[in-house]
Amino acid sequence: MGFFLYQDFIVFDSSQFTFFLIGCIASLALLTIVFQQLFKPRQKFFPKRVITHFESKMFIRLKETFPQHHLLAQVAFSALITNNNLKIRNKFNRKVTDFVLLNQKLEVVAIIELDDPSHIGKEQEDAERDAMLNEAGYQVYRYTDIPSADRLRRDILN
Question: Under DSSP, is residue 72 helix (H, G, I), strand (E, B) or coil?
Answer without folding.
Answer: strand
